[in-house]
Amino acid sequence: MNLAAIHVYPLKGARGISLQRAEALAGGLRNDRRFLLLDAEGKFVTQRSHPKLALVTTALASEALTIGVPGSSPVEIPRTPVTAGAARRIVRIWDDDVEVVDLRGPVVELLSDFLDTRCSLVFMPDDVVRPVEAPYGKPGDRVGFADAYPFLLATTASLAELNARLAEPVPMNRFRPNLVIEGGAAYDEERHASVRIGALTFRMPKRCSRCQVTTVDQATAEVGKEPLRTLASYRTENNKVYFAHNLVPDAEGTLTVGDAVEYL
Hints:
Blueprint: E1 2-8, E2 17-19, E3 21-25, E4 28-29, E5 35-38, E6 57-60, E7 64-68, E8 75-78, E9 88-93, E10 96-103, H1 106-115, E11 120-123, E12 151-155, H2 156-163, E13 179-182, E14 194-197, E15 200-209, H3 228-234, E16 236-237, E17 240-249, E18 253-256, E19 261-263
Parallel strand pairs: 12-13
Antiparallel strand pairs: 1-2, 1-13, 3-4, 3-18, 5-11, 6-7, 7-8, 9-10, 10-11, 12-17, 14-15, 14-19, 15-17, 16-17
């Protein structure tokens, strides 16, 4: 088995970026889900409520994050905004209260106009620690604005098994994984407690329960019923539908496409 793809999503809910090499940090891949959109009521915005987020593009340069939307010129912001001395506020992401810094400028107008809703854009400073979902994390485990865990792993074998059941196959981006594994049998990722990818090991505490974001076509933002309907027919347990697996790293390091993968 090997690491077939690496994906990072700087702005939660927006289109991801494929990388050949990435830094794996305690809280996830570097630059993964450190930016978050909030609506006028201060609630975080995702494709669940705003499917058009799938059309918001992101690109990383050495010091900048470029955010673009169809029909408008892209806007650059610092990929790591200066937060020292900046005013902070608390936002709620699922069950967690998190300190954030508000960002100003044209990017806020760009996203607000495109999504047809007044938005604010916030950044999670490096010193803010959001713990991994209890009781699955250990002391020191952390996560950015991802739903609950720092890494999400999916496998091409599991996707192939699902696609064999669908009238029209779906691409891997419906599941927005960070790491894609090639090789092995379908759903092997659910039968092990940990995995080694390259030189790094990851705990595998919990399968990932899926929501309606999987029904959003990431190329068009159109919303359908698949693959969630088919997944629900055979992958439901305790009223949750599962596909892909959450990971927590044991140490920090570097991941490269092609790295060998071994379940432990």
